[in-house]
């Protein structure tokens, strides 16, 4: 165990939800066994974790060791290179958990430090935790696309809604589980649903944690015919944070009305003439949204899975069974015709949520897709 790296990770976690499109980073400076400086990054503060720790350490940084969760950056971005500050402060050794996956940084930060006489040590024993901390950032750097998580609340038999829910609304999971969903929303850059969910639930689809964010949660609706009600809660609460994805067949008049209320309307359609989920994800990538969570109905869920747009799932399970053929499954659509054609998952993890409730987190096995 390395208590200083653990403290750096704990510091980095304090920035979660407040760093996008940059990674969460924590740094600790130690001299003669004493912690003399600490820092963690948040986008609103601009200064990186390493610089904040150096400023706190002051003259005590000279000859000290810095423990940092991610390779210090070596290029000019919103801020000068952190490696320059480390070298100027006279820090003699840097212990880091992992290299930065950003191609502008990868290995270069360590090389610059080493060339300046700073000793470099990589302690990969904490790499799993560090990678989990920045999984959206790492995914974006490796693929050029946001990390897409399909979230759902389901019964033990995989249902998300019953036939008469529209006249007798209720919840599948507990209040504890629903509060946990808000923590996931806080950690994501954008959230998407289908127009069917908006019409049925009049949802706000917002982040209700009350915690500060690096950027507003972008709320997105797939709506091929532009049926989005101008009087819906989502439109009423729009503060340049609502986007509707539609098609060329949508009414120009409806579009004008929504846009007059601050809603961003984008025409992105697939070959079948429907609002395109994939084109929307590519749009988010161009605008440097690192993560997207889908909270939608059965049809959109299936589209996300079948198309491979979804990267992972996070399903909350309640100790209930709805049964019947009319209750909606978590993923509808055509489905796979044979058990041998099933969509596969890997790296499955179980999370206890509340008494008799749990969540399943797993990644789609895209390498074996048909």
Number of helices: 12
What percent of the residues sit in helical stretches (DSSP H or I)?
A: 25-40%
Query: Total strand count, please?
Result: 16
What structural class do you assign from the helix and strand content?
Answer: alpha/beta
pLDDT < 50 stretches: none
What percent strand?
A: 15-25%
Write out the strand line-up for the largest beta sheet, numbering strands in chain order: 11-10-9-8-12-6-13-16-15
Query: Mind telling me the C-alpha Rg?
Result: 23 Å
Largest sheet entry: 9 strands, mixed
Instruction: Summarize model confidence as the mean pLDDT.
Output: 93
Outline, from the CA principal axes? Answer: elongated
* Terminal Cα span: 43 Å
- The secondary-structure element order is HEEHEHEHEHHEEHEHEHEHEHEHEEEE
What is this entry, summarized?
The protein is 28% helix and 23% strand. The chain is built from 12 helices and 16 strands.
Describe the structure.
The protein contains 12 helices and 16 strands. With 370 residues, the chain is α/β, with parallel strands linked by helices. Strands 11-10-9-8-12-6-13-16-15 form a 9-stranded mixed sheet, sandwiched between helices. The radius of gyration is 23 Å and the shape is elongated. The model has no long low-confidence stretch (mean pLDDT 93).
How is the secondary structure organized here?
Elements: H1 3-13, E1 26-31, E2 34-40, H2 49-57, E3 65-68, H3 82-89, E4 93-96, H4 108-115, E5 119-122, H5 127-133, H6 135-143, E6 147-154, E7 159-161, H7 175-186, E8 190-194, H8 195-201, E9 218-222, H9 233-236, E10 242-246, H10 252-260, E11 264-267, H11 277-286, E12 291-294, H12 298-306, E13 312-317, E14 328-329, E15 345-354, E16 357-364
Parallel strand pairs: 3-4, 4-5, 6-12, 6-13, 8-9, 8-12, 9-10, 10-11
Antiparallel strand pairs: 1-2, 1-3, 7-14, 13-16, 15-16
Helix pairs in contact: 3-4
């Amino acid at each position: 165990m390395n208590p200083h790296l653990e403290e750096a990770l704990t510091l980095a976690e304090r920035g979660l939800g407040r760093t996008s499109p940059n990674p969460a980073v924590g740094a600790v400076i130690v001299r003669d066994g004493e912690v003399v400086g600490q820092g963690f990054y948040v986008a609103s503060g601009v200064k990186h974790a390493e610089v904040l720790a150096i400023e706190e350490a002051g003259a005590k940084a000279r000859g000290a060791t810095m423990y940092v969760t991610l390779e210090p950056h070596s290029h000019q971005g919103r801020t000068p290179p952190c490696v320059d500050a480390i070298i100027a402060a006279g820090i003699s050794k840097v212990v880091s958990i992992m290299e930065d996956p950003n191609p502008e940084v990868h290995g270069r930060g360590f090389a610059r430090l080493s060339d300046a006489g700073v000793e470099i040590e990589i302690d990969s024993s904490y790499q799993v935790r560090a990678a989990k901390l920045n999984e959206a950032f790492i995914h974006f750097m490796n693929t050029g696309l946001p990390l897409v998580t399909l979230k759902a609340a389901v019964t033990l038999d995989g249902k998300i809604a019953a036939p008469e829910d529209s006249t007798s609304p209720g919840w599948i999971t507990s209040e504890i589980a629903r509060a946990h969903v808000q923590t996931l929303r806080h950690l994501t850059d954008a959230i998407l649903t289908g127009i069917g969910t908006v019409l049925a639930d009049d949802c706000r689809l917002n982040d209700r944690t009350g915690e500060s964010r690096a950027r507003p949660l972008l709320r997105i609706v797939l709506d091929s015919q532009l049926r989005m009600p101008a009087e819906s809660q989502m439109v009423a609460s729009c503060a340049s944070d609502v986007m509707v994805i539609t098609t060329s067949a949508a009414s120009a008049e409806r579009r004008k009305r929504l846009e007059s209320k601050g809603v961003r309307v984008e025409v992105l359609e697939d070959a079948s003439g429907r609002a395109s989920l994939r084109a929307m994800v590519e749009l988010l990538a161009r605008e440097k949204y690192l993560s997207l969570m889908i909270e939608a109905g059965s049809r959109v869920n299936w589209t996300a899975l079948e198309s491979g747009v979804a990267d992972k799932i996070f399903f909350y399970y309640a100790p209930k069974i709805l049964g019947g053929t009319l209750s909606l499954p978590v993923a509808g659509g055509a489905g796979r015709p044979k058990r041998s054609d099933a969509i596969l998952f890997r790296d499955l993890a179980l999370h206890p949520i509340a008494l008799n409730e749990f969540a399943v987190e797993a990644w789609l096995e895209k390498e074996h897709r048909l």
